[in-house]
Amino acid sequence: xxxxxxxxxxxxxxxxxxxxxxxxxxxxxxxxxxxxxxxxxxxxxxxxxxxxxxxxxxxxxxxxxxxxxxxxxxxxxxxxxxxxxxxxxxxxxxxxxxxxxxxxxxxxxxxxxxxxxxxxxxxxxxxxxxxxxxxxxxxxxxxxxxxxxxxxxxxxxxxxxxxxxxxxxxxxxxxxxxxxxxxxxxxxxxxxxxxxxxxxxxxxxxxxxxxxxxxxxxxxxxxxxxxxxxxxxxxxxxxxxxxxxxxxxxxxxxxxxxxxxxxxxxxx
Length: 268
Ligand code: 1HE
Known about the structure:
Number of helices: 12
CATH architecture of the largest domain: Alpha-Beta Complex
Bound molecules: 3-methylmercaptopropionate-CoA (MMPA-CoA)
Distance between the termini: 43 Å
Order of helices and strands: EEHEHHEEHEEHHHEHEHHHH
């Protein structure tokens, strides 16, 4: 496996925990973790390497009271970018976020405070989102004279549907609390720390075989982009590889000899 040299990351803080779980934290709390060009390059770097470095699951977090304020508007203003410059900026965002969504490593986002604009685009590139009671979601681009450029038109629309996405952009509507979960912006809301709960979920996911997680966190997204016929075909091929992997034999044997845990309803 590749080695990840954590000393080369400045705007991300990166910790390698037990069980192959890594915690990647946006670490510019004074700027509310706004996404400047350096942060995006570090995300490209980490998430390009992680699938080949034995990373079994990632918790993606933001330091301070807010997960992420989106595009660094001050950098954008100061750089006075041309249309071509900003197109290339957006292509780097897509590079990072596609590496996340399609890379095959489970990513659990731990959300608090503002998850807005590009921050919501980042969060929606994770596979699972856990919010605490302070978290809120919005797309303020419309009010700022901007448009989304980091994949919201695709990923946020996938989460909440076209009409809600367009409303969020037109009116600046903010979603929070249980309603945000009901709409699909997050899958979990917790009373305590979203980071603690995200860690718990990441440790669970990390116990799956890496090849199963690769399929779950890559194939499902690819298949969304295919026709149903082609997706079914691709699913057969992926299942052919995953479901016959030698590492699965011990798990299947444990089921057959009745030593493996059974699936039961949650207890009250
Ligand atoms: C920033 C940014 C930022 C804060 N870029 N510097 N995103 C937005 O429109 C969200 C803009 N931010 C906010 O609405 C608020 O800052 C927050 C709700 C996130 C936090 O509020 P608060 O009161 O805690 O902080 P603050 O006083 O507004 O900001 C603290 C500092 O963070 C301040 O810097 P300072 O040097 O004066 O201390 C702010 O300038 C800085 N800061 N947010 C740069 N976003 C690929 S297209 C994507 C399109 C978008 O993402 S549009 C951006 C949408």
